[in-house]
Design goal:
Blueprint (H helix, E strand, L loop, with lengths): L3 E9 L2 H8 L6 H11 L4 E4 L4 E2 L10 E7 L2 E5 L22 E9 L4 E8 L2 E9 L3 E6 L7 H4 L23 H13 L14 E8 L7 H5 L6 E4 L5 E5 L3
Antiparallel strand pairs: 1-5, 1-6, 2-10, 3-10, 4-5, 4-10, 6-7, 7-8, 8-9, 11-12
Length: 244
């Protein structure tokens, strides 16, 4: 598995169903711009280049964000959502109002890390963050239906062969396997395997800079390349290199 994600969505109810309705419809540029202004208040934000398919941008380069807004649903891709404790997502990034839902999904295959969370009307319902090195980093709220078979031991990871140490996997399931089911349940598509229609949903690019920093224009100019990470002592992925 080589999946990496950094996703946040706001929806008036069933996000996957609303995203399916948006397939083939370009995101509303005015709505999307207003969304970026609201969620990146104090940041520098500049429109980037051409729109990209959602499946291409679920893990943007540093200094980039992708966003799309349609009636009833907003989707954003940005590495700032890769929180080892999703419950600490800043309140101003949550959708509030009756029936409004916020979902977060972050995954990194190099360290077998998964995090996802669900809020209803700004109230945290579920947050999970797991990695084999650190175990369960955060586990708040009741497991969601798609999780139950994993916690019940129905998706165990085969131990390593004897000639490779024969070690047991330190979790009752592989985080990336659960991550794929979480992505499908919460967003309506998968990071790997056969593409779903929703993956073709168009996303608008932006160059973003934290308060006091300029957008990293070079990020949009360079091609996307694989990057390699290790888990740092605080549980966050640390870039250790990328191919030349």
């Amino acid at each position: 598995m080589g999946a990496k994600t950094a996703l946040l969505a706001h929806a008036d109810g069933d996000g996957p169903a609303l995203l399916r309705q948006a397939v083939g419809a370009a995101p509303d540029r005015e709505r999307t711009g207003a969304l970026m202004d609201r969620l990146y208040r104090g940041w520098t934000v500049e429109p980037g280049g051409r729109s990209r398919a959602l499946f291409e941008v679920v893990y943007p380069a540093p200094g980039e964000a992708f966003a799309g807004s349609w009636p009833g649903v907003d989707v954003l891709c940005d590495r700032r959502f890769m929180l080892d404790r999703p419950s600490q997502l800043p309140a101003d990034l949550l959708a509030t109002g009756p029936g409004r839902r916020t979902v977060l999904h972050a995954m990194h295959s190099v360290v077998d890390w998964l995090a996802f969370a669900l809020w209803e009307d700004g109230r945290l319902v579920r947050s999970l963050s797991v990695t084999p090195d650190d175990g369960v980093i955060e586990d708040l709220g009741d497991p969601l239906p798609f999780e139950l078979p994993y916690w019940a031991g129905e998706h165990p990871v085969e131990p390593l062969p004897e000639d490779e140490g024969g070690q047991l996997y330190p979790l009752p399931f592989h985080p990336l396997s659960l991550g794929e089911d979480a992505l499908h349940a919460l967003f309506g598509f998968n990071a790997e395997g056969h593409p779903a229609d929703v993956e073709e949903t168009g996303m608008l690019p932006y160059l973003v800079g934290e308060p006091g920093a300029a957008p990293r224009a070079a990020a949009a100019a360079r091609p996307h390349r694989s990057q390699y990470y290790l888990m740092g002592p605080d549980g966050r992925p640390i870039l250790i290199g990328e191919p030349s």
